[in-house]
Design brief:
Shape: globular
Distance between the termini: 63 Å
Largest sheet: 13 strands, mixed
Radius of gyration: 20 Å
Length: 247
């Protein structure tokens, strides 16, 4: 018995250590998401009540961007596409929804926000960044290279659609439940894509982020960059366009 106890202890410690390593390795993997095609255009009203959203796959859980660890701030995201738009939805659990910016192209990342980064061709350095806050304010940016955007007001997507719905108040006080967001990015804006509309099997780089401020600040990502920086395209995940049709 004296020899058995240390052996069991070593096994237990080894199992815990192996689990930690496996979790860390998994969080550093670049995720891949298969996008279903919708036969019905999404009604972009922020409500997420279109039937097609119930048939879309979920992105994997968002994690803390700096170290890839799980987050207490639950975020659910999904995507769909058709010939004209790439649709992205967010559902953000939040007991203290907060934002103040109300004018397009303000520095939304300084407050609570959801973000979409898209780089259709990794051989080209340019990419698109979209941000929406709980007040329904949009920041859309076209970047020629990493952190080298066109002047914010000089590029506004003409056919871009977005909307939010609140289950609470945007007053910095506790007692809220969640907020939801829908974005429809026109395919015509994604000028670096090899095919428009995308063909089955086409792969684009994409990342999704969330900035949380109250009650506890947090930077969340679908594919963590492991740095205090969202602008690392090499750490973006991939979306793959499929012929899985939902209606």
């Amino acid at each position: 018995m004296i020899k058995t106890k240390p052996s069991l202890l070593c096994i237990a410690v080894g199992m815990v250590f192996a689990t930690v390593i496996a979790t860390s390795a998994q969080s550093r993997d670049l995720p891949v998401y298969e996008v279903s095609r919708t036969a019905t255009p999404v009604k972009v009203d922020g409500k997420l009540d279109d039937v097609v959203w119930t048939k879309a796959a979920r992105f994997r859980d968002f994690r803390l961007n700096l170290d890839g660890s799980p987050s207490a701030s639950k975020t659910e995201a999904k995507a769909l596409y058709d010939d004209n738009f790439l649709y992205v939805s967010f559902r953000c659990s939040d007991n203290n929804i907060w934002a103040t910016f109300k004018r397009r192209d303000e520095h939304l990342w300084e407050e609570e926000v959801v973000e979409v980064f898209i780089q259709a061709d990794p051989q080209q350095r340019s990419y698109i960044e979209l941000e929406v806050n709980p007040l329904g304010t949009m920041l859309d940016i076209y970047l020629l290279d990493i952190r080298k955007p066109l002047h914010y007001e000089s590029w506004n997507s003409e056919k871009l659609k977005w909307a939010v719905q609140l289950f609470g108040t945007v007053d910095g006080k506790d007692g809220d439940k969640e907020w939801t967001c829908e974005i429809a990015l026109p395919m015509e804006d994604i000028v670096t894509a090899g095919n428009l509309p995308p063909r089955v099997g086409d792969r684009w780089r994409l990342n999704l982020y969330r900035v949380e401020k109250l009650p506890t600040p947090a930077l969340l990502a679908w594919s963590p960059t492991f740095k205090d920086d969202f602008h690392i395209p090499s750490r973006f995940g991939e979306i793959v366009f499929t012929n899985d049709l939902v209606r």
